[in-house]
Amino acid sequence: MQFQKILFKNHEGHELAGRLDLPLDEKPFAYAIFAHCFTCTKNLNAVVNIDRALTRQGIGVLRFDFTGLGESEGEFAETNFSSNVADLAAAADFLKDNFAAPKLLIGHSLGGAAVLQAAGRIDSCAAVATIAAPADPSSVTRHLGNTTQEIEQRGEAEITLGGRKFRIKKQFLEDLEQVQMEDTIRNLGRPLLLFHSPQDAVVGIENARKIFETARHPKSFISLDKADHLLSAREDSLYLGSVLAAWAHKYIGLAQEDKRRRDLADNRIVVRTGRKGYQTEIQVNEHSLIADEPLAVGGANTGPTPYGLLVAALGACTSMTLRMYADRKQWPLEAIVVRLKHEKIHASDCQQCDFQKDGKIDRVQREIELMGELSPEQRRKLLEIADKCPVHRTLEGKTIIESHLKA
């Protein structure tokens, strides 16, 4: 995904640092704001994975550091839950003034409670999703242990969370106690999607039950079985992102006719590989794909290899061509299965090759299974037609590839 570094001011005048993640080489059809967990920053790995799933579906996502965290200005000790909600409203105002008003709010942990509160202040919000959110924000104080007494007595205390030290003042606890979540959830007035893990040891699953029971329809709940609170396992955030992206389209997505009219740059296929690893995003018209390399060669194995995609294109073209031909002839072809294998072999091992036999060449073995009451002659003809599919001809023919650097 592409991104822009963002700076905007909150209502207190502090400059907040954010990142706007964008779809590959196209304008988003909608924008979302992601509120991270208490004391986390916008760069949490799980947030990155979730954002990537949304941008692949055409949704731009703004994630930012709350006041006093990460790269944002301000003193964390002077912040509280209410100031986090105000920061979200400021982020929404920034998007509205510079891009488009956000339609989706997403919050993780205490950030989930914050987006529930902020939704009523953001008129453009059409849907809300929470991840491991507490039903009562004041419940987070139980994780402060004996520090709570010190804060009550001294007015402030230093705590360590996630290996980092933070100073918390009494006003933070007092602000949490004043938050009225039940009425907020009941009167949310937007579709709500809850994600929570039954094994969450930080914010228990009973919080999701309470929020779900309090909220009005439409509402949905997805169990993140075996996930921890921070979604440390990569597969958990990838799964969450894919489900969230599909759900969001129901409430903020474009109509099918609008999708067909989207203005993509020259209708080109666009491919992007980031700074780390080999995971590569591919945009083919309105369809998003992922390519990668196996773990053995340093990839993350999140998608097929480039050769895998190339050979898959041959298989798809073969199958479609046979379907078209059989339909035109009105033959009883029920289904086609094409199995392919690509490998590099020594040219000298190629018995049917009539060119110079030195070095290595590519060989694709293709097995075609035809299902249906076909005569032997029909089956032979379909095998002949398979060799005439356009991709087959391209691979066996001469292709001109012209490259240039973008100015």
Rg, rounded, reads 27 Å
User: What spatial form do the alpha-carbon principal axes imply?
Assistant: elongated
- Give the class-level CATH name of the largest domain: Alpha Beta
Rounded to the nearest angstrom, the distance between the terminal CA atoms is: 21 Å
Count of discrete structural domains: 3
At the fold tier of CATH, the topology name of the largest domain is Rossmann fold
Series of secondary-structure elements, N-terminal to C-terminal: EEEHEHEHEHEEHHEHEHHEEEHEEHH
Describe the fold and architecture.
By secondary structure, the chain is an alpha/beta fold. It has three domains: 217 residues, Alpha/Beta hydrolase fold, catalytic domain (Rossmann fold), CATH 3.40.50.1820; 32 residues, no CATH class; 91 residues, GMP Synthetase, Chain A, domain 3 (2-Layer Sandwich). The protein has twelve helices and 15 strands. The strands form four sheets. The protein has an eight-stranded mixed beta sheet, with helices on both faces. A three-stranded antiparallel beta sheet has the order 11-12-13, with no helix packed on it. Helix 1 runs parallel beside helix 8 and helix 2 crosses helix 3. It starts with a strand and ends in an 11-residue tail after the last helix. The mean pLDDT is 86.
List the helices and strands and how they pair.
Elements: E1 2-9, E2 15-22, E3 30-35, H1 45-55, E4 59-64, H2 81-98, E5 104-108, H3 110-118, E6 127-131, H4 147-154, E7 156-161, E8 164-169, H5 170-178, H6 181-186, E9 192-196, H7 206-214, E10 219-223, H8 234-252, H9 256-260, E11 270-273, E12 280-284, E13 287-291, H10 306-329, E14 335-346, E15 360-371, H11 376-386, H12 390-396
Parallel strand pairs: 3-4, 3-5, 5-6, 6-9, 9-10
Antiparallel strand pairs: 1-2, 2-4, 7-8, 11-12, 12-13, 14-15
Helix pairs in contact: 1-8, 2-3
